[in-house]
Amino acid sequence: MDREPAAGICAEDIIHYQDLARQYAKKSITPIFEGEYSDGNLSLLPEKLKTAFDIGIAATPDKTHSGCQYGIWGGATDETGLLPSILLLSIIAETCGGVAMCLHSQGVASNLLIQAKKELPFTPVMAALCLQEGFAPPYLGTIVSPDKDVPARVDTTAVKNKSGYIINGRKSFVYSMNGADAYVVFARMDNVWGCFLVPASESNVSANDVGVRTGLRACRVEHVDFNSVEIPQDARIDGGEAREMVIRAMNLNWTGMSAVAVGIAKGACASARRYAAERYQGGSQIEEHPAVKMLIGGAESATAAAEAALYSLPNGDLGSFKNLKKSAAVKLSVMELCSRAVTDCLQIFGGYGYMEDYGMEKRLRDVTVLKSASGSSAYLKQLIFDIGKEGAL
Amino acid sequence: MKQSMEERIEQLKLKNATQKMNIFGRLLVDNREMSLWEHDTKTLSWGVRRWRRKALKFAREYIRPLAIQADLHPHDYDPKPILAAAARQGFQTLMLTPPLGTASTLQYYKGTAFQMAVVGEEFATECGGLALLLLAHNLGMAPILLSGSVRNILRQMIPFYLKSHLLGRPDCMAFAITEPGAGSDVEETEGGAKAKLVTTAKYAPEKKGYILNGRKCFISDGAIADKVTVYAKIGDEGIESWTCFLVEKGMPGFSVGRSERKMGQRAADASELIFDNVFVPNKNIVGKLRSGWANNRNVLNYSRPVVGSMALGHGRGAFERCLEFCRKTYLGPKRLIEYQDVQIELADMAISLWAARSMIWQSCRQFRCYQSGSASAKVFASDTAFKVCNQAMELMGDCGYLHEHGVERAWRDSRLTQIYEGTNQINRLALFEHHLSTDFCM
């Protein structure tokens, strides 16, 4: 039976979260974009991310930080619902999708550690989620049976020995802030999932940057290899079967990514409106041209539809297939709507939209990465269908 | 003996099932095994077919090895060797037939832009930026050829042909219409009438020429061009007075300003050109005085199918690299290409590209390119290419946005084709305008 939905938050709390995100975006993120940097001056990023911990936006399992409970995907998510984190992420993403993605990926990994409600062998401040292998997240068959090729089994394994576990395997496309202290690793134990906390400093753990990529460049993305990594028994953070944790991780991941995409689209719409009012062409402001009105109107309606879909996500059991199906459907439609909105907004700028000056090309790059990352449309469609099949729900 | 399902499926394939037909029936079935590319090439006449094969070879030999670095570090590579190689092979003189050019003569008179469009697709398949670097030169030369001035054509084309095709030391040309305050305006009639233009030519009778002042922006190959065809209004007159001037590198007062930092097509520069009291002699006026607006619009009619073909090339590049990824990548025990949903998506991409190619080829299969045909081909091909690039990226999941696979580069490159040579919105209006007195009369 589904858990009771979370009570939600009051209007004052919503305003508080919005103010917090706007202040952070204005005071910390906007300065990154001063000067000629297409993705911002990324050397300033560590300092700005530290501020996110200080003001409690960034979640962390470390209880000495205020974000542990009320940061993005912090421990209070089940109690307050999805809305606070969605608000924070989308408002920050209006200024920079990459920074929002940093905070989101930190939040998802932290949430899993906090929800485990176990005494951890050590408490990392920065954590990253290691779930995906290859070019896509696990398909339904793999979530249900990690040991079977339906269509692909999990190759990362955890084997129990006398002192703890030995982990072997390779995880792909691990998103994190500027370097993680620990990885939350999902691995196969015979025919079930296990979830483990692995220190990044371990000598047999090696992380390699994925190389040049299209967007979200504020975020670090790595492939992480685990080569006979020995960890103690108490580093296993699930209660004997981690499938619900896998679903929770995917659920939060897609919800947060959808929130980031909505933020990017809203930022693009606002920029396009401003530009259309300032730019003269043919003797009048371009906002007077019907073609421009059509593009902006279409982009704003697509963004509003995406936002509505995002807010329709139910609170409640994040580890259920029912909610996973909904978040997959939301990611699928939100990404489609938002990328269309951003590309239409870029068109308003003509040649200037394609240049780095107005930041529109960055928005398009960022939203396009979100569309393909951690589950592209083909993958999501298949998962949505498969979950609907008998037995999964 | 009972057959397995695999054997039955194999026998049911058209190629095998044909064996049960009589000889005349068999003759009517086309069972030739050849690639999509080869099928299309076979439909072309001999001269164009030759250029298509030659361009494919050149693109793989010269463009492919340079593509990744030229995109990542556009300021660290020397464009001259590839320009020279293209010139030696005749790609930079395709705008005319022998004795002044290299285009296949018979086919040229059946479709002036056709050979260029075929070459454009092949180049852009490997790299959008390098394709633009090589092809923008032809755009710079088009105003001279389309001016109808035999004097201009002979004066410019004879030395160019000698230097380019015979010596392999080509001059590079650029085409300059866009101004900081007038982008789309100079590509559309109504906008043109209201445009606020800054580049002005003032007659200097004592010097027998014109003094040019003003700025142009986003000029492809602007930083490396030896000669630029620049459009300027005369004195205080409007765009009706637009005249095309040939400005040469080294003319006092002519300089290159900022080079733009672009999302894609990065191997070719997009630069600002500054004219500060540049004296241009009368002999450098291209065509008649005040004929620039018509000349500009007609240049766009000839260039838009080529831009469409470049977009098609970006889409094809993304498709081919995605296909390679699907062949090599395993999902469980099977390769991606073995999954039916992947096959459907790949087929859909191929169909879209085929449709775009058919439209481009159709649009420039006559001696004179016409406004609605060219605009439609450009819009359809660029929108299709962007869609196909997105499909390719999504099919590859997280690998799609990695630079190393080359698909995201094609995606970035393709987005510009929806903007330059008139945004796709402007091009739609061009179609409407062309048939205002016929199909769209009010």
Report on this model:
- The complex is a heterodimer of chains A (393) and B (442).
- Chain A is α+β, with helices and mostly antiparallel strands and 393 residues long.
- Chain A has three domains: 11-115, Acyl-CoA dehydrogenase/oxidase, N-terminal domain (Butyryl-Coa Dehydrogenase, subunit A, domain 1); 127-242, Beta Barrel (Butyryl-CoA Dehydrogenase, subunit A, domain 2); 244-388, Butyryl-CoA Dehydrogenase, subunit A, domain 3 (Up-down Bundle).
- Chain A has 13 helices and nine strands.
- Chain A has helices spanning 11-29, 45-54, 67-70, 77-80, 83-95, 97-115, 140-144, 243-278, 290-311, 321-348, 351-354, 360-372, 377-388, and strands at 127-130, 157-160, 164-176, 182-189, 192-199, 205-209, 220-232, 280-281, 284-285.
- Chain A has a four-stranded antiparallel beta sheet. A three-stranded mixed beta sheet of chain A has the order 1-4-5, with helices on one face.
- In chain A, helix 5 (83-95) packs across helix 8 (243-278) and helix 9 packs antiparallel against helix 10 (321-348).
- The longest helix of chain A is centred in the middle third of the chain and has 36 residues, at 243-278.
- Chain A is globular, with a radius of gyration of 21 Å.
- The N and C termini of chain A lie close together (11 Å).
- Residues 1-6 of chain A have low confidence and may be disordered.
- With 442 residues, chain B is an alpha+beta fold.
- Chain B is 52% helix and 13% strand.
- Chain B is built from 16 helices and ten strands.
- In chain B, the strands form two sheets. In chain B, strands 1, 2, 3, 4, 5, 6, 7 and 8 form an eight-stranded mixed beta sheet that branches.
- In chain B, helix 12 packs antiparallel against helix 15 (407-416) and helix 13 (340-363) runs antiparallel to helix 14.
- The radius of gyration of chain B is 24 Å and the shape is elongated.
- Chains A and B meet through strand 8, helix 10, helix 11, helix 12 and helix 13 of A and helix 11, strand 9, helix 13, helix 14 and helix 15 of B.
